[in-house]
Design a protein that fits this description.
The chain is mostly beta strands and 442 residues long. 1% of the residues lie in helices and 42% in strands. The protein contains one helix and 31 strands. The protein has a five-stranded mixed beta sheet, with no helix packed on it. Strands 14-21-20-16-17 form a five-stranded mixed beta sheet, with no helix packed on it. The longest helix has 4 residues. It starts with a strand and ends with a strand.
Length: 442
Amino acid sequence: MSIILIIQLFNSQGALSNQIDTLFSHNDSIIDLQTLFSAQTYPYIRLKAHYIDSGSFTPAQIDRWHVLFTPLPEAAIDGSNGYTWIPDVDTLHEGEEFKFAVDIKNISKLHMDSLLVSYFIEDNNHVKQPLPYERQDSLRAFQTLRDTITFKTTGFPGLNSLWVEVNPYVNGSLVQTDQLEQYHFNNFLQVPFYVIGDYINPILDVTFDGRHILNGDIVNPKSEIYISLKDDNDFLVMNDISDTTLFGIFLTGPDGVQKRIPFIDGSGNEVLQWQAAESQYKKFKIIYSAYFETDGIYTLLVQGSDRSGNLSGDSQYKISFEVIHESSITKLMNYPNPFSTSTRFVFTLTGSEVPDEFLIQIMTVSGKVVREITEDQLGQIYIGRNITEYAWDGTDEFGDPLANGVYLYRVLSQINGEEIKLRETEADKYFTKEFGKMYIIR
């Protein structure tokens, strides 16, 4: 009669890799298996015994198997105290921050080494998105770890699942965990949640010296271009320098070459200033103090997006404008003409300076001045196209209505004590010398 002990050896992947057959006699034993193989190479074993009695066919029974080994610790997710989920809803808005915590307990009498916990989100496309979380201190016997992880839902629209894996499998293995442990089935937790996606386009606004211009308008060679992007998402307020990467700003000069305008140039100089959006108004602002050196046609192209990747529009903001360095002014016209209740004054100014003297004189056909309108009354004057804020109501210096009929008017304007050069336009044919005509019809 004989007994054959079969020791099957399994690698870290759980595959049978080797086998040892040993013939046992009475009271036989293997004192130390580590003398035969390495636990690092073969972390799992299986013992089998074959009883053979080819004579009387009555194999003896083994009194006992006595296997000496070092036991392993055991960690588990303990849900007896519930888990923390703030805010306490399973539907969130994209960009909203939430916090999560659950008890992880060492339910054995043995201490565990420093504990690795894997947090990740399985997104709407079933793609695993790891969440950063540092390795924790050792988990002593019967101790509990409850740590809070915080993250934002940016980029996770749709149905998602938050996963927790304690002492996770490593290096793509489905067998080898970060440290040896008895069981792994109780190391997982899944919490589903839904994120309402942010699909609303932000609003882009661009002004030159505080005004919206039209395609082809003349602008100041020293314009201050103000760009703002407003995103109404309360959870994705653009308030960080990294948000500057969400903009593309390009300028094409009269030479036809397009160049990107950087926030900081290659020499470290600030080209574009930025201002963080406030939680109340949610406008991210960019200020470009431009100087256009050459006369001609320029094209500005601006595209921005919010933190969710929503563009400011289906097409980029694109505007062409003209720069003229020489100071000049067109003939001033009134609109509407004829008028019954009020009329405004329209003209175009070039250069980089506005007049320091500007006076409109209105007179009868005999040359008597019946009304003078000063620059202070007209309101602010800009380089480029001007339509005055002020509307003349057809009254004289005393506020009395003028009679119906034809009236003459002219403009007296100066910069630094010198007359401004007249810029010729098609409208000049409606003027006799410097005088224009207006008609009051009530």
